Amino acid sequence: MPAIAIIGAQWGDEGKGKATDLLGSRVDYVVKFNGGNNAGHTVVIGQPDGSSEKYALHLLPSGILSPGVTPVIGNGVVVDLAVLFEELDALVARGVDVSLLKVSANAHVIADYNRTIDKITERFLGSRRIGTTGRGIGPTYADKMNRIGIRVQDIFDEKILTQKVEGVLDLKNQILSKIYNRRAATVEQTVEELLAYAERLRPMVCDTGLLLNQALDRGETVLLEAGQATLLDVDHGTYPFVTSSSATSGGACTGSGIPPMRLNQVIGIVKAYTTRVGEGPFPTELEDEFGEHLRKIGAEYGTTTGRPRRCGWYDAVIARYAARVNGVTDFVLTKLDVLTGLEKVPVCVAYDVDGVRHDEMPVNQTDFHHAQPIYEYLDGWWEDISEARTFEDLPVNAQRYVEAVEAMSGARISAVGVGPSRAATVVRHELI
Ligand code: GDP
Ligand code: IMO
Ligand code: MG
């Protein structure tokens, strides 16, 4: 039965957490398949008394908030064990049942030296920095590809763990001390820090690929939730200004052990405008009062680092690209409410690169850096849309905006977000 992927169609922070939460009651498993605690998902859950509870999740899949759902950290994730237990403890303190969590034995762990290397590499890069979250994500994935990474299963075999740490530190300590002039890490301390989590971790660890495929065999529903997004994907994003994992629907398979043929729906989350955190090209970026307006009304500050997000208009070229790369079957258009009160709403339909029109992503990154947006100007609306629950509840111009963006973006828009809470959603086509 169905495996469904939720992916970000832009540069992250599209509202994947809210979308996962929205579907949480209809699925049996929610799997994080890539990234680590670089992600930041804010989920707002309305309470019966009218108040709301806000959760910020980084390493854990957002599905952990849905009662009865089994949350899974897949093999494609990089796990900071200290953050894992901090996040679990914080949820337990708020009454969330986290007992079902499963962690892949093949996921890699983020060691202290990789957090250090992430931060100092950025400092050394100076103006060429990526603007990473400084969580050690890139260096840990680099170790995985270099075949010198430490995996979750290694924590349960002190001898093997010590051998692996000795091997990796032979190399890392050269880098730390000779290139960066930092104190070398010791094998004993590194091993001790990792071993400290072993007993608490042990009951959660299993072959998550087997678990998920057996669940699918039984007809259960598995939701695969991406961290980051298409334009931050290491293969398909704006390299080198990307994260170091596969955030697209292909990554949902490699990062979970679910084969591609079992994936029958891909839900792309796309914001009604665009944001980006960190460095890198961003054609529709606004450095004027409109950018400030979107940041303020949309509360566009990073959930993980608190950095102000760069803001710009909707870019249909990248939405189409995301639809193609991921095989998006449905889009969820989020934060439409943030666009209320604009006379005209510009939407980028193509780029001008040095006098040449591009309807698709330019082949060369240099051209993408030079891309000037070609805008179509849609009529705005002034009515408060936060209480809209059906498409017909939306003002006519908001409906036109959704329809126009849908026609440009390569897949149907099945739901529209009109506020942060789960209820503030207009459903046009049932997602599951
Ligand atoms: P993620 O990383 O993709 O899960 O997204 P983030 O949680 O980092 O950022 C999305 C932000 O927008 C969160 O603060 C959400 O609560 C909020 N949000 C999600 N959907 C909507 C919406 O439709 N309208 C408004 N106003 N806020 C939304
Ligand atoms: P969610 O899941 C937005 C960005 C960083 C930086 C680049 C590389 O909340 O959408 P990294 O620490 O991953 O090596 O940083 O990627 N980045 C994100 N931007 N949302 C995220 O996650 C991000 N995760 C990483 O800002 O530019
Ligand atoms: Mg986020």
If you had to describe this structure to a student in words, what would you say it looks like?
By secondary structure, the chain is an alpha/beta fold. It has helices at 16-23, 81-93, 112-125, 137-146, 158-179, 187-195, 198-201, 208-217, 249-254, 289-297, 316-326, 365-370, 396-409; strands at residues 3-8, 29-32, 41-46, 52-57, 70-73, 78-79, 102-104, 108-109, 205-206, 222-225, 263-271, 274-276, 310-312, 314-315, 330-334, 344-353, 356-358, 372-379, 412-417, 425-427. The strands form 5 sheets. It has a 10-stranded mixed beta sheet with strand order 9-7-5-2-10-1-11-15-19-20, sandwiched between helices. Strands 14, 16, 17 and 18 form a 4-stranded mixed beta sheet that branches. A hairpin with a 2-residue loop joins strand 16 (344-353) and strand 17. Guanosine-5'-diphosphate binds at residues 8, 12-18, 40-42, 44, 303, 334-335, 337-338, 417-420. Residues 12-13, 39-41, 303 line the site of magnesium ion. IMP binds at residues 13-16, 38-41, 133, 147, 228, 243, 307. The active site is at 13 (proton acceptor), 41 (proton donor), 144. Mg(2+) binds at residues 13, 40. It catalyses: IMP + L-aspartate + GTP = N(6)-(1,2-dicarboxyethyl)-AMP + GDP + phosphate + 2 H(+).
